[in-house]
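Thread: Cell filamentation protein Fic, structure

OP (GT): Posting the sequence first so everyone is looking at the same thing. Length is 381 residues per the record. Can we get the structure tokens written out before standup tomorrow? I want them in the notebook alongside the other entries.
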Amino acid sequence: MPTRELPDSAPGKYVPYHPNPYYSPEPLPITPKLDISDQTRDLVADAAYQIGRVDGISSTVDFSAVLYTSLIRLEAVESARIEGAEVEYQDVEAYHTQHPSGETETTIEKDLREALNYEHALTSGLERIESGDSITLSLIKELHSVLLDGVRNDGDVVGDFRDHMVHLTSPQSGHRPFVPPAPEALDGLMQSLESYIQMGGQYHPLIDAAIIHYFFETVHPFSDGNGRLGRLLIILYLVSQGYLESPYIYPSAYFNRHKIEYVEHMRAVSDEGTWDEWLAFFIEGLRSQAETSYDRTQQLRDLQERYEQEYSSSTATDTFARKLLQYPYFKTPDLVEYLDVSRRTAYKIVDKLEADGLIEEVTGKQRGKEYKAVDVFDILG
């Protein structure tokens, strides 16, 4: 069957295949080297500044551990949503409150499990990187197994590259599906990706992160979970390069808001070699999310200062009010452990803070009530 002729600038070609030709990308590194525009270089500089700001402010707040966890969970929720999952940040916080020891429930609804799996995979990947491991194909396959734990579809190959062709539906109606390369090409292509990561790329880390993400999504090495794993690798790569101290940026939120442009920019690279447009889109996503994280951290710091001023006494109620950023979602019995108080005192604390509007009950139940810190969730939401 006839295939579309691509310009020389395209980093690959279409190969005849029924009913749609598949795309065969050239292995990394890109040749010839990319000519980065001045506008994109300026955007890189601005994004670097914003990432530096959020790294700086995050390390100075008393609630940095909570912020770290909260932003990972926000990223997990947004990444699951891109794939069509209906899950909220509050659902993830509720699950962890209900399962404080970390045990895994076997009957979790699939959409929530996808978000929890992403959180687990990202946390595990970060721990491996921070312990000195590098990003290898072995690690990528391990993380894929974590992502698809309990949510695999029939026929999915988990923890290894796909053994069959896949067709990716276009987000634009009327457009033909995109068909990634054939299974027999995956090992060679992914080895070129591993080598590129091991060599530290060829450009600024933000540009290399964009190249790596495009390549991974285009190769589409797994039968499912490629989008989630590809977005997770953005953070792991920037941390592995020492460019991001902690995952205080969460790119999935930006990609979710611009889902059609996200896919179209990558397809345009494949078809036309429009690298600079993709780089600008990708780096603007990291820049804007770093800016959002900085603003949220500043708001949380201001909120903490307000609580410390308004609830400054040594009473148990005031003490817990000052700890709301540390415990933004809880059940009343949790306060017995958090504050070393009686259950009677715990209920009085909840009644007072609920009356003050600092917390609200979210289940609507008469028993087993759960509460969230209103101001904290307003900022994180």
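GT: Both are above now. Quick notes for whoever picks this up: DSSP finds 15 helices and five strands in the chain. The chain has two domains: 12-296, 315-380.
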